[in-house]
């Protein structure tokens, strides 16, 4: 299914990326607008129900935030999963806990499924947090409309938005015919490897769905709500360089050459000069070890290096990361880096390897249409129109794994901030708003003629 996506060939200087974004921007400005209008009687009933049950939603949020569930806290992730499974069971979904192989050291995932007719929806949350129990997990603390706690915005509040949006749809009898899969992954903050196993069920759900919605925290800034139609990828690269070991007095001569460290410096500088510059493309060298001997330990993202000033170094190892807006941009950057690595200084050699993590969620016409529908709902709820968020302002997320197969929209949670820090917070007054927006969006999309 094409889903209105824009396809073109890779371009060596970012032309394909800019063309895609220009097309999306053109449509945002010149397409026939979605009229906000008022809420229908059914939508108003859902909104009223959400307001009446706002404190119930907050109580559920408190229950899950008070359970430490860092990715490596397998028992904690499972405990949060049992709470959310209870909620999905009460709504009437068929739930399943998907176990991961023991050697992956991941708790697993919770899936809830419901059959129906019409457009198929995948709703994505995650059970784990970036803070482990050993870090001194912060429990739920409320001061008026502001609440703190580890994982409260990223993304235990989004998990609650999913369940309460489904409850609101059930309240008016609309959920009965809507096919839904709810995916609560247990390792979003640090995905288990290999990804072919840890994301298998999520990708299969994306291939099944027509529309995917991600419920990480919403963004409110500069007096506006923002919709997320694109997110950048997250991947890794490793550069390994070897040179000819010799007495330092021989460096640069015909028999010894430049040594590994000068070659590594040449490569990194060429990355900066020749690969850097495309919009939405960033890459970082996170650490570097060089000398006569190098011993890098992946488990602790560091290691030891030995070398002397009077010895030409033999080894260098550099570990880095990269983010891109599309698969085309990712492949262009990798090819450009490979070409630079291949042009070695005398008596040196180098290799670069790449490892995928989160793929990009590229901007598409289908994603834009979803954001325009959400903007109309936001206006009907009295919040004003929504703009499209710059992809530079969000990191990667699980929705990116399904974005190639389905129209997608992210950032549908409540408004919060300072994620991945001890001061993570949530504006509780926006929790009912997020639930209403999600419930009404699903309702309106489910009512559209699927033959169009």
User: Which stretches are poorly predicted, pLDDT < 50 over at least 5 residues?
Assistant: 1-15
Helix fraction bin: 25-40%
In total, the number of strands is 21
- Main beta-sheet strand count, sense and barrel state: 6 strands, mixed
Shape: elongated
Radius of gyration: 24 Å
Count of individual domains: 2
The quaternary organization reads as single chain
Task: Please report the distance between the alpha carbons of the first and last residues.
Answer: 13 Å
For this structure, the CATH topology of the largest domain is Aminopeptidase
Quote the average pLDDT: 91
CATH 4th-level superfamily of the largest domain: Zn peptidases
Structural class: alpha+beta
- Strands of the largest sheet, in order across it? 1-2-6-3-7-19
Note the beta-strand portion: 15-25%
Annotation field: number of helices: 11
What is the CATH first-level class name of the largest domain? Alpha Beta
CATH architecture of the largest domain: 3-Layer(aba) Sandwich
In short:
With 452 residues, this protein is of the alpha+beta class. It has helices at 15-30, 41-52, 54-65, 74-91, 152-171, 195-198, 200-208, 260-275, 327-341, 365-380, 431-447; strands at 94-98, 109-114, 121-126, 141-143, 146-148, 180-185, 211-214, 219-221, 224-227, 234-243, 246-247, 282-291, 293-297, 302-306, 311-312, 315-323, 348-358, 386-388, 407-409, 416-417, 425-427. It contains 11 helices and 21 strands.
